[in-house]
Model the fold of this input.
Amino acid sequence: MSPDLIIRGGLVFDGTGAGPVKTDVAVHEGRIARPGAVEVEAAIELDAHGLAVAPGFIDVHSHSDYTLLVDPRAVSAIHQGVTTEVIGNCGHGCFPIGDPELSSRIIYGFDGSLPLDWSTPAAYLERLEEAKPAVNVLTLVPNGQLRLATLGLEARPATSGEVAAMTRLLEEGLEAGAWGYSTGLEYAPEQGAGEAEITALARVAARRGGFYATHTREREHHADEAVAEAIRTARNAGVRLQVSHLAPRSGPDQTNRCIELVDAARAAGDEVAFDMHTRLYGLTFLYAMLPPRMLNASPEDQATWLRKPDIRAQIGAHKSIITGLGDWGRVYLVDNDIWPDMARMDFEEIARRRGTTALDAACDLLLDSVGAEKAPMVLLRAYSEDQQEEVFAHDLCVPASDATALAPDGPLAGASFMGAYTWASWFWRFMVRETGRLTPEEAVYRLSGLPAEIVGLSDRGLLKPGMRADVVVFDPETFADAGTTFEPNRIATGMRHVVVNGVVALLDGTLTGERAGVVLRKGSQACLPR
Done:
């Protein structure tokens, strides 16, 4: 057997958490061929002397469902060594599509450039395959779309007939190759979802060997109760649990309590882990502050309601992801076309400049944005680096982007999403080089082997013979994030080579133009590109 590609002389981390070994890595027909020194030559040889070699990084919590269709190059991801993304998280995603206008509201990165002209999960995954993404992609079935397709924006528990209808849609997604089921219980489309219906649907995912990922409800002052609900739901459903971005926005005490609950569940034999994004801020649409009945209204009705003081008072009293913070000084307006002169200010400052209250300023902005092509987004100041350090040091925590794959040029040049360009690179810089809380081999395990275990990927995440050849080569001393809070679209530094399914996607820090990613369907063998 003659290898197709050889990576020479690097410090090889196999993804298990074991210490590195200086050796070669050979690839044959898209798979890792063998460890150790390779005497023969290959058509493609990559010099890794003085560099780290590791399995491709796995983003266990991505929102690239739509942006990979718009620009499948995944530039922000490839430059961080990301070779696989798990989409369909937080109950958000691109299927099933009932009412396209309604569905578009829970698709991150939706800009209308590609119409939602599919409806089923199979049709969506086919469209994704046609796009030929640069990274491997696998999906969960998003509960938000299940509820929108069945109940619309009704803020109540589903009836037995509606649960049956959602079960059929969920089974359709799992049959098409989804790897599990996700919820976003803090968001308006799912706030009315009861524990019984979530348990019933999670049980469907369990029967097919999938896992359950949840953005829990009440992620402020009752975060521990929400995590307890997630653990109880998973236990009653008999399903593996992944708690999305576990640390709540209410500080370290609640964070510690949430972690204690996870530890206790593990000790009791439950299969549970958690992930965390790397930014200090949350990011969401400003309209997430609206009650469900307003989200479901026509633009004309929304405008009428937003002008009424009593309706504004109701919006302020509604416990949304934004108003639940209880502090408009922690809510920042990002760059936008509607109030560009107010961008990067918190709403207390915006209110002061406009001579009004913060709630009225937010409602005024929503009123001005009714019918706009791009809805305004806000940052929610949520975490400290000390808090993040403790969370990421926990042995059940994996880092994740909680963002969309982007590119600084092309059709997504004007789009931004905090974390897209920075998550894996921030994690390495902060946790390995700056704090020293993780060894390089531990960090590689969190970025590759552990997320593969969580998802159930048996042939990725490790540099072992027979595994799929997703490989990254980087400088461990310079791999770092370059993006900032308000200038996030800066490509990470230090990533030298990236190989996806045996094909070189990044060579000497430059994209090759190759897009060898595949759509990974659970229960079927993905065909590698030739």
